[in-house]
């Protein structure tokens, strides 16, 4: 039962709240929760990455402006609903897209534009480091970006004083502390489970590898300090309050939890931090996180080895492309609808279009699509060309068109998951799915269950996402009992009574997806031909 407005108002005044801020690929979101983990207010800022000089990036000015606008939206909602201005917050957490490269000099100036996870420009470095460490280093990882810059002899490298992720940067900006949560850190450089820190032997290997460059830094000197969930990683400074709250009503001294990546907050938001549990996060990219019982038998370039926010090993299958092409097609249908003089709400349009997939042939009628807006690491593409392909014999109708676009959104993920389940025999007790796709009931859940061949659950909190997840981590830091594990805290305090809808894979859906995935693999040569022959032009 939710608190009444007077009780919530008093909690806000007393600072019995936690604020989560997450920088997603298309939206920056703030969520303020109370000490019962209920959302009090939220704010958001829409943005898009840009392809500039060969790199996917977000401008530093927009990062700061988006942070302020998302906070301001949440603050104004509190003022409207409770007629008070936020001055105190119990705790704050920052989350963002994992990986990427933000390099700063000793004055705190950004040396090159932020290079996001979406860039597939580091294949040479990633392959060399994987061979060197005998540990999979994906192209997205910060260390791959750093080493590729070294191989390319980029001019900024001698001036590097600090490298971090987007979440680490925002945390540093607000607290002055060069900190990072272990989950986000595991997307920068390999983590040693026994020490719950960067793998020391690999750090030394890297320093030896670049010794002839004579840079004035060692790797450990320029990486953020690793923190575990539940630990305090700094406080909001006077400068930080002015950055976050333009109205300057917020008081400094608010504790900050370790900044985390979107993978970690996704695990928290779906209560998937215990072994043999997993979650699927669906957005611009899609990834599955499976908490492992044991080490994998060999190195798989399709599988990232990362950690939960408390340091447990996780097998991560990350595909760079997921919902962008679906969004583009639905945008096209919106244009048609509006050209006919009609108006439609976005949620209604998505619901109608996605539900058409339930009427389709099980395999999508022989159609084929690749939603590759960018390179795709799992299938080996350094660039992307969105494609839709059919033969004269294909059953081309709206239902099959929508089904095939949903299928292909999980095509690369399926290839990676098959390695975990079929080659490594990883056992999964439960999969929780979250992301905007699951706001439309049934259809997304059915497709994912068919792809995974395992029951898939969606929680009532599925739409809350990573901003809520990092708010929970901030609350855990302040409200946990002594030695209370994150898993226990989530089980016994956060998710008690939360509605969960589980769906088992349908036999015809599974068979249809298997037929599709073979077509998907065989058609990859078409995608290769498109990349080789259709020149990509840069957009302003």
Features:
540 residues, alpha/beta, Nucleotidyltransferase, domain 5, 7-stranded mixed sheet, 5-stranded mixed sheet, 39% helix, globular
What does this molecule look like?
The chain is of the alpha/beta class and 540 residues long. Strands 16-17-15-14-20-21-22 form a 7-stranded mixed β-sheet. A hairpin with a 5-residue loop joins strand 16 (304-307) and strand 17 (313-319). Among the domains are: 5-81 and 89-246 and 254-260, ATPase, nucleotide binding domain (Nucleotidyltransferase, domain 5, 2-Layer Sandwich), CATH 3.30.420; 324-409 and 507-533, no CATH class. The protein is globular. It is built from 19 helices and 22 strands. Residues 279-477 form the Carbohydrate kinase FGGY C-terminal domain. InterPro entries: ATPase_NBD (IPR043129), FGGY_C (IPR018485), FGGY_Carb_Kinase (IPR050406), FGGY_N (IPR018484).
């Amino acid at each position: 039962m939710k608190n009444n407005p007077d009780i919530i108002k008093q909690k806000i005044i007393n600072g019995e709240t936690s604020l989560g801020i997450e920088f997603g690929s298309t939206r920056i979101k703030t969520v303020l929760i109370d000490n019962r983990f209920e959302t009090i207010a939220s704010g958001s800022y829409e943005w898009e990455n840009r392809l500039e000089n060969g790199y996917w990036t977000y401008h530093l000015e927009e990062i700061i402006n988006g942070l302020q606008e998302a906070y301001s939206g949440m603050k104004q909602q509190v003022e409207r609903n409770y007629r008070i201005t936020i001055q105190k917050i119990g705790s704050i957490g920052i989350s963002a897209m994992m990986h990427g490269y933000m390099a700063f000099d000793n004055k705190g100036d950004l040396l090159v534009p932020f290079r996001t996870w979406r860039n597939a420009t580091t294949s040479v470095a990633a392959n060399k480091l994987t061979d060197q460490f005998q540990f999979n280093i994906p192209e997205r990882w910060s260390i791959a970006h750093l080493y590729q810059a070294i191989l390319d002899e980029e001019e900024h490298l001698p001036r590097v004083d600090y490298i971090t992720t987007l979440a680490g940067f925002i945390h540093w900006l607000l607290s002055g502390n060069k900190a990072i949560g272990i989950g986000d850190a595991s997307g920068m450089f390999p983590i040693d489970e026994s020490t719950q820190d960067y793998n020391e032997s690999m750090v030394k290997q890297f320093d030896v590898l670049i010794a002839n460059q004579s840079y004035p830094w060692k790797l450990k000197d320029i990486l953020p300090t690793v923190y575990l969930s539940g630990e305090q990683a700094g406080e909001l400074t006077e400068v930080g309050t002015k950055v976050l709250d333009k109205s300057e009503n917020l008081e400094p001294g608010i504790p900050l939890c370790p900044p985390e990546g979107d993978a970690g907050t996704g695990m928290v938001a779906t209560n998937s931090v215990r072994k043999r549990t997993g979650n699927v996060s669906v957005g611009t990219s899609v990834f599955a996180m499976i908490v492992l019982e044991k080490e994998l038998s060999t190195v798989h370039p399709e599988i990232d080895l990362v950690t939960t926010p408390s340091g447990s090993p996780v097998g991560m299958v990350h595909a760079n492309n997921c919902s962008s092409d679906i969004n583009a097609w639905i945008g096209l249908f919106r244009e048609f609808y509006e050209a006919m003089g009609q108006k439609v709400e976005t949620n209604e349009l998505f619901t109608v279009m996605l539900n058409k997939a339930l009427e389709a042939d099980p395999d999508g009628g022989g159609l084929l699509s690749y939603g590759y807006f960018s390179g795709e690491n799992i299938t080996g593409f350094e660039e992307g060309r969105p494609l839709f392909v059919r033969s004269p014999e294909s059953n081309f109708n709206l239902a099959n068109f929508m089904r095939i676009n949903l299928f292909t959104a999980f095509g690369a993920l399926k290839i990676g998951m098959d390695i975990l389940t079929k080659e490594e025999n990883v056992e999964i007790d439960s999969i929780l799915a979250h992301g905007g796709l699951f706001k439309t009931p049934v259809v997304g859940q059915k497709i994912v269950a068919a792809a995974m061949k395992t029951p898939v659950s969606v929680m009532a909190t599925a739409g809350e996402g990573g901003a809520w997840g990092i708010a929970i981590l901030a609350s855990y830091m302040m409200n946990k009992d002594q030695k209370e594990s994150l898993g226990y805290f989530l089980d016994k305090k956060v998710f008690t009574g939360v509605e969960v809808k589980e769906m088992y894979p349908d036999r015809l859906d599974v068979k249809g997806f298997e037929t599709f995935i073979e077509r998907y693999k065989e058609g990859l040569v078409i995608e290769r031909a498109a990349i080789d022959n259709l020149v990509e032009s840069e957009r302003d």
